[in-house]
Write a structure and sequence with these properties.
The chain is 33% helix and 28% strand. The chain is α+β, with helices and mostly antiparallel strands.
């Protein structure tokens, strides 16, 4: 597994986006029309991420797209003075959740990576390279968005790092493998007593 992740790193060298944006034309802001438009917006994201418009005809994927609200973070409306429809629904989807959904079907950037086993794990991780409050917020925000992190609890801090207790939905190795691909955090060289792993914030 780790060897496969390493092989994929050049392909996924950039930091993974936190959101994907999908759009769909609408005639009104009614709840009924929004439900269908959310599915259209997610379908457009799936096509963009897979590069194949035919995949949305797959029954298993179509069923997942029907539950588009699961992946939605927020939405807004944009008026179209020149468009065929008076408005466009603009939806921000959780990129990590969408990637995980596509991975389950063998699609997208992580399609070749086996799904991580669901092995609930408690781990303590040292994260260095934290210079100020903005860095701290960036680290905590990243961990809270990670699909494998169920809970984050900072337990100690120094002038350049923090010790955090993580409740994971997978084992530490798979968590670290995904972190390595996303490149927000990298493997650290400093070891701290009591930590299961050491990471460093990239700048």
């Amino acid at each position: 597994m780790l060897a496969l992740l390493a092989a994929l790193l050049p392909v996924l060298a950039g930091a993974a986006p936190s959101t994907y944006t999908g759009t769909a034309p609408v005639n009104s802001q009614s709840d009924e029309e929004r439900t269908g438009a959310l599915q259209t917006a997610l379908a457009n994201v799936v096509i963009e991420q897979t590069g194949d418009s035919s995949v949305i005809a797959r029954p298993d994927l179509a069923k997942a797209i029907e539950k588009a609200e699961r992946y939605m973070l927020q939405y807004s409306y944009r008026r179209n003075p020149q468009g065929d429809a008076p408005m466009t629904l603009v939806v921000q989807f959780d990129a990590g959740a969408v990637d995980q959904m596509l991975q389950k079907f063998g699609l997208g950037a992580l399609g070749a990576v086996p799904l991580a086993p669901e092995t609930p794990t408690e781990a303590t991780v040292w994260i260095g390279g934290i210079r100020d409050a903005d860095d701290y917020a960036r680290v905590i925000g990243y961990l809270n968005r990670n699909n494998f992190v169920k809970a984050v609890q900072p337990t100690a801090a120094t002038s350049d790092g923090i010790l955090v207790h993580l409740s994971l939905s997978t084992d530490v190795a798979h968590f670290l493998g995904v972190v390595a691909m996303e490149r927000t955090l990298a493997e650290g060289t400093s070891r701290v007593d009591g930590a299961d792993a050491a990471l460093v914030l990239g700048h």
